[in-house]
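Before relying on records like the one below, remember that each one covers exactly one chain. Contacts with other chains, cofactors or solvent are not represented anywhere in the record.
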Amino acid sequence: MKSQIRLLGIDDSPFTFTDKYCNIIGVIMRGGEYIECILSNQVSIDGSDATNICIDMIKKSRYKKQLKSILIDGIALGGFNVIEIEKINTITDIPVITITRDKPDFENIKRALKKNFIDWEKRLNIMKKGKLYRVQTSHNPIFVKCVGLPIKEAKEIIKLSTIRGVVPEPIRVAHLIASGITRGESYGKA
């Protein structure tokens, strides 16, 4: 695999549940070394538009045809605005990898969804869909789902694009930008 592949990392900005929307930032990088483009949009907090907003953001990018993979921080943006990674992959024809630091606790997630959403089962089913892989890094393990590519290739992309720590650089930079825009200074882990 080439070291300069184009990757898109997506993360959301910090928000409160009194907010109606939150920003999402996409960072297109060559591997984990060179930023080529910043994308931005908004998703509704706890809404159901994250999948289509991500697809729209990707389709409008001049780099769409060169993207090797889309890396997303988790399976939801803006709270429980759950992302259908299979739909993104099908419509854009670009592999999608979700990355989380912690293994999802589906019992707690189920309780929260049940308490707050009429369509809680649909959201939970989307979140549980696909195999969750535990991937060991040089520091701590991460948890990964991928569509459109085998886990072996997803691991190569993660390794190639991770400079320090456990999170690939496109996601880390998207997180820094999103939190910096919202709070005036970035902080926290992607």
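The mean pLDDT is 94.
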